[in-house]
Batch of 2 targets.
Target 1
Amino acid sequence: MNIFFITQDDPFYITVFFENFLKTYPSLDEIKGVVLCKTMGKGRYELVKQLYNFYGLHDFIRMTGRYIRFKFLGYLYGQLQVNRFYDLRQLLHSYNIPIIYTDEINSKEFLDELASYNLDLIISVACPKIFRENLLCLPRFGCINIHTAKLPKYRGMMPNFWNMYNNEKTTGITIHKINAGIDDGEIILQRDVTIDPEESLDTLIKKTKKVGAYMMIEVINQIKEGTIQYIENDGTKSSYYSFPTEKDIKEFRKLGKRLL
């Protein structure tokens, strides 16, 4: 089994997924590489502006401090080869997993490079880019995605935020095939995850990333064994959410919810 991941360069949450996946997955030689796109697919100025609007001044300062700390410790521990991980690149380097930096995942040049790996499976973990047809058809078993909601509900962006916003008692995790639609492919595996009353968005995202890592291992094993039973992702029962506006975030806080 030859596997490639496509994700984004995020030290806060994606690292949680990969740390738990890599320390548990028994066949790391199957991981041929990880593609890192820009965080949320945005340039630095645009990203900072969006995060400032999302977090507000106080939480933005806290997140900026956390980012600087994670990047510094990731670099330092990478130089010292300490198995404590604060940065996704540090983590991947420690496991000797190749990294490709690109946002052009549908370009001919990138697809030609991927084709040289004779891939069986491509896995999207919070990839901020849309997979086009030529990419979807490239691996033998297709492309799959992990989405932190119970599809078909809560398609789109920031599903953990919207589950909390709507006072749901649980969120979900879904691993599904990727097709031309948004979070529309057939469902492979789903689990419920409890939202604790005092949960912050930060802790909920970390919790779902950790659970999702173990679910992904389960799905890969099902693919190897040929035991997958697909579940319909019924579009007639779907709901879709976009990135929260400042008004949404103010309402979120009025409900007594915390981002951090």
Note: Residues 3-254 form a domain with the Rossmann fold fold (CATH 3.40.50.170).
Target 2
Amino acid sequence: MKITKLGHCALILEDKGVRILTDPGSFTTDAQEKETELDIILITHEHQDHFHVESVQKLLEKNPDVQIVTNASVAKLLKEKGIVATIVGDGQSATVKGVVIEGFGKDHAEIYGEMGLVENTGYFVNGTFYFPGDNFHEPGKDIDVLALPVAGPWMKISEAIKFAKTVKAKKAFGVHDGMIVSGFRGFVYMLLGNLVPDTQFTEIKDGETKDF
């Protein structure tokens, strides 16, 4: 699998000829709106840093055959804009353009009280890649490649470390890091690499592509 990080949680996954864009949010509009030849857009939840509806509309113009996969809450918002999505929620799965997508988890992690509590679905792609969105939902499956959230108002780095130790992915890289000063990101990944030695951690810089 080849992974390009556009920034924050916007990734391009390329596997067996299929191109998937994850979480096109408000932090990464310039990069994601240029993308063409997309097959799938995968959206974990409705917060702006993961779901920028204007970007989705522009992407549909450039990628008329792209299919959107998301949970029921985001699908409802898309329907209001006349956009159809395939719904994959917790415990559900779908095969889209030959790609098996499985959903895990129901809720966004708590920020404070009721603030920001929306439906959040972690997605497992082709039994290989796992992207939990904004909560540490455990899929209960072996993970080859993990996109691990490393910063945000809903989490502590200790929670990311505990999650990584629990799921024991073979390889991992950091996401949800758009609010971290770029020069500090390397320290975060070094910390994870030292404290979770059973997982091979890799830093993917914004705009960079790596093979997994």
Note: The mean pLDDT is 96.
